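Good day; I would like, with your permission, to put a structural problem before you. A protein sequence and the structure tokens that stand for its backbone fold form the material at issue. The record follows directly beneath this note:
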Amino acid sequence: MSGGRIRSIRFKDGYTVDSLTNAVSGFGTHADPRSYNRYLPRNLDQFHIAAAYDGSGMMAKVIDIPALDMVREWRNWQADAKQIKALEAEERRLGLREKVRMAETYRGLGGGALVIITAGEHSSELKPEQIAKGGIVAIHVVTRWQITGVDYIDEIADPNYGKPKYWRMGNSQANIHPSRVICFRGDPLPPIIPVSVDERFWGRSRVQRVLDAVQNVDTAQGSFASLITKVRNVIIGIPGLMDLVSDADGEAALQRRLSAMILGESMYNAMLRDAGDGTPGAGETIDHRQVNWSGIPEVMMAFATFLSAVSDIPATRLMGKSPDGQNATGDSDTANWNRMVKAKQELELQPCMDQLDPLLMASAGVSTTEDAEVWADWAPLDTPTEKDDADTFNVTMDAVTKLQATGTIPDEAFAKGVQNLMTERGWIPGLEGALADIPETERYGLNPSDDGTDPSALQPSEGGDQTSAGGGNPTPARRATNDAAAGFFVDAAPRPLYVQRKLLNASALIAWAKDNGFKSTLAADDLHVTVLYSKTAVDPMRMGESWSGDDNGNIRVKPGGPRAIERFGENAVVLLFASWELESRHRSMVDAGGSHDFDEYHPHVTISFDVPADFDLAELKPYAGALEFGPELFEPLNLDWKRSITET
């Protein structure tokens, strides 16, 4: 800035101020208009706060949005199912969620409190052990102007310094112990200027901080609305107007003339006017003027953007507007706002809930010990889509499958953990009730019932040999795999790869197919499930080994579960089934470089290629028995594989 310099000014009281000045522009000197700016204290009473909240829709949103979003997804209790049910029922009985939202609204307006009502003397301290089941009669929400602190503690060594010894409601003289009042206080006031002890305790109203910005938005909105009535002005010039209205008859004639003009324009879309006697300028003149709105929306949005900045609420949330910027989706605004709400939950709301929760648990009949703690976490603020839920499920089950394969957790404990996971996440509706009807010896897999599979068909023979996959005794997995891939892993050079698992109990599936009208099926040796069909050349050694399987490398899909009979590709009829072991293994191979020609991988066993088109598959009840698969077999990909398929 031309002519600028730094100067220091020393005042009489000894303070020195360094500032930038400019003698040409007057910047930083006594000629600078800003030198007369002053920030003056402004304390709003409850009447002004209520008027601003009720009178301005934008002010109401600034106060209501944080309060609503802090309880929007509420909390997730961490306890056993019976305790969670009791706690959630007690919250509903007391209307806790809505009352916390109301208390947070009062916090924004200047402060509020939850008052806990129980049987007995309210002036005495309330402890959890004093509350019987259902002992909390009610929880009421009050503003700071409805409750009064009595005898604020000014002893700095006291843990309750700055808090009242008792509370009183309205004009009542009855004392309420502080343990029964949970205060939702506003932003703290800095101890710079003197204020009353009550003002100091409750803090600052959010209304006071955003008032100017809200008024600017409302003023801009109101001014623009008033312009709409003047969007189109009609100016009518009448010769000798002053002489015409000088008497009553002339004024009446003028009114009749204007009425006729308006009627003609409204009914016939035609304007009638007196063209005069031909003398220039002697007739009536009519001019139309259109208001120019250019720049007005931008100015209004500038005020709204400033309000968004002052209130810390993104414009996408405050005004419901689409995000600005090229390729903007609003995700970053949403993420930032969710982080802000999460911080408010932890810093402002959680201390209030920490005071309330022990009392709530006692009233719900829930106790907590060192061995069985009970607590609540704030639920995530993002509501996941169906795809997000599916992705989360896939990733979680992949991790569960790998964890199970390590064998580090006993089967019973692992089954309990997975069942609790499914129940808490709500991934299988009705699972908890269904499991409750099953005896524990079966529920956790300690003594599973017989599924109809002949165990002798799946056990190794005394000689340790294995016949075909159609029902003979399997050979050890390591030997079977090595025999199948003897020439394939000589140099482990990248090449197209095919990985399958043979169906060991193929005879059971073939018997089902014949019973259901299939004229022919693939041979027992050909029944299998494909794990990978990669046309992309890959190093087979990079595929690693499967995390699943028993000591022989076999895996078992339990009876039941999702099953379907569908047509695939070139008239293939297949049995579709769900298997997280196979799906997670397939994903790991694709992640390691393998390819897949379809959008999704569906585990299936091809039953037949020779099924008439008019054969009604919808009438079939899919095979529901167990599916026993042998170890993974790595083979070079044969694109002409169908020539080797025969049906019996």
